[in-house]
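Re: [help] complex structure
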Amino acid sequence: MKQLIALFVLFTIGSVSSQAYAHQPVMDMAPRWNGGYGAQTRITHANDTTTTWVEGVYTFKPALRMTLKVPYSDGKTGDAILAMPIKRYKNDGASTSNWGLTPSVRMPTGGGSNWDAGLSLSYSAESKDYYQLYDVYRLGDTTGIDINAGMSHADGKGSSWFTLWDITARDSDSGQYLLSGPVLVYFKGNVIVRGEYKFAVHDNDKQWDGDYLSIGLGMVF
Amino acid sequence: MRIKFLAIPMLSVLLLALLSLPASAKNYQINVNGMVCEFCAFGLAKKLRKLDFIDSAQFEDGIKVDIENQLVYISIQEGQPLNQEVIFEAIKSGGYDPIKMTPMDEVASPAEVTQ
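Output below.
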């Protein structure tokens, strides 16, 4: 029954479906438990365009997840990305880390006819005091590197703050750009709120112009 | 007469020993490797709360998570047998590695945990 609900979440949001940040994990840390699932929505603003991302994740087991991301902007559904993160966790006493290999496919749900394949290699580690994520990927004609690193602050009553710094680099047929800026993440129970602002450090990309803003809200079950 | 004289203290010692066995403990502390994130521990607690021998009247629905020290406190219903294998399997399916389980009366008082 739970799996049916999760598949319903994943494929219902598929019916509502740009580029940019499509490869990134849906809530990297969770759900890491067997049969866990979650959904989140993110509103991003970049290049004078506001995009709403509806994203879902289902965890078959800690080592295997399935994610779906669907963008919606200017009244149109964009190309959805289906991915299957494969993770290898290492739990030490006071820290946990994982290597991830994520094959993905971008589907032409936005009206085109092109299918794009992608592959990402990532590493993340966290303790009760810090969090770090490194991700290298290729999706379609875009190669990217993302780094998130910073401090975490738990209150011991079920909620935490993460104050991170993000570095985002992209190289594609249209050029290159480098963004950087702060990320703030708040957890309470099974709810996650994430906000980030990145400014352009370097922009030599004909299709990129300016800064990037993102606000997201998600839940896991 | 001599046998009866010896039997009474021996039975008393045996009874006291039975009462002090770890199996009589109701609350346990579990060391869990890697449990450092409240958000991630949500699933672990969820898995443990589903076990039918958990005493949900204790702690927070039977479970308390301490990510500062990578500890989980678990309360077992009175009269229920302790099944460590099932508990450890639930923790593993929550994405973490259990290390050891210790009766609470050997490590801390419930009052210290709930504070």
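DSSP finds one helix and 14 strands in chain A.
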